[in-house]
Write a structure and sequence with these properties.
190 residues, alpha+beta, Beta-Lactamase, 21% strand
Length: 190
């Protein structure tokens, strides 16, 4: 009997140490981690995810992921979460709204969670904040569009100048022809 209790205590201690390591990894991750139950209610948010969203962990627990986005993205988030129920694990981009209303653009790497009997238990996802990258992409696109517009405008100006020059050349050539006929005519008549 003493042996059974000692073995059980040893296993419990190892389990506690393993859980402590797991929590340390989760809490020090540079990615946001979001775990939800089978109804997609938030059951766990690491500190980084809460910071990215501008909320406290407690403010996010018990809520749905679609509570943290605009109307346009609610349906997309719900559709992506339903894929977890079907066992589809994937990575994709998703947009949320921070507590202050500013956008939070992320890459989501999601995983379905099932129990030993294959029953859906929820999902876990890792979030990488790509907001700055998206802002830079938008600025780059605007700059390229602006540059393209300037090139089109300048090309049109050059084309107009070229056509004007061609017209001037044609007029000069005709004038020269008329002038040489005039000179020939003057010489004949004198």
């Amino acid at each position: 009997m003493l042996r059974d209790i000692t073995e059980r205590k040893k296993i419990e201690k190892e389990l506690q140490e393993s859980e402590k390591k797991y929590r340390n990894i989760i809490e020090t991750a540079s990615e946001g981690i979001w775990i939800s139950d089978s109804e997609f209610r938030t059951t766990y948010i690491n500190k980084r995810m809460a910071e990215m969203a501008g909320y406290t962990q407690d403010e996010m627990i018990g809520r749905y992921a679609w509570d943290f986005t605009d109307e346009e993205n609610k349906a997309i988030i719900k559709q992506n979460l339903e894929k977890r129920r079907q066992g589809v694990d994937e990575s994709y981009e998703s947009k949320f709204l921070r507590k202050d209303g500013s956008p939070l653009c992320t890459i989501v790497s999601s995983k379905s969670l099932f129990d030993g009997n294959g029953k859906f238990m929820g999902s876990m996802a890792m979030f990488t904040d790509i907001t700055r990258r998206k802002e830079a992409e938008t600025k780059l696109k605007e700059t390229l569009d602006n540059l393209e517009e300037k090139v089109k405008k300048r090309t049109a100006e050059l084309e107009k100048a070229y056509n004007s020059l061609k017209e001037s050349e044609r007029s000069l050539s005709e004038a020269q022809k008329n002038g040489s006929h005039w000179e020939l005519g003057v010489g004949c008549c004198s």
